[in-house]
């Protein structure tokens, strides 16, 4: 169900899997959170977390 302009599923899946194993997605998410916190004038690293 990939868009027509994407490579074959096996290529996309292989790329995703390698990135997951290397921890790339976790690093990307960390950077996105940090950037978002800076944008809203908060500390780059949260000191506490709230769980509902």
Structure, explained:
- The protein contains two helices and no strands.
- It has 52 residues and is mainly alpha-helical.
- The radius of gyration is 16 Å and the shape is elongated.
> Can you write the helix and strand succession as a string?
HH
| Low-pLDDT sequence parts | none
| Strand residues, percent | under 5%
**Rg calc:** 16 Å
Largest sheet: none
Count of helix runs: 2
First-to-last CA distance: 35 Å
Helix fraction by DSSP (H/I, runs of at least 4): 55-70%
Keywords:
single chain, 52 residues, mainly alpha, 2 helices
In short:
The protein is mainly alpha-helical and 52 residues long. It is 58% helix and 0% strand. The chain has two helices and no strands.
Give a topology summary:
Elements: H1 9-22, H2 24-39
């Amino acid at each position: 169900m990939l868009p027509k302009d994407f490579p074959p599923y096996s290529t996309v899946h292989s790329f995703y899997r390698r990135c997951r194993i290397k921890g790339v997605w976790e690093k990307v998410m960390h950077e996105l959170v940090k950037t978002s916190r800076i944008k809203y004038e908060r500390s780059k690293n949260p000191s506490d977390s709230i769980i509902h």
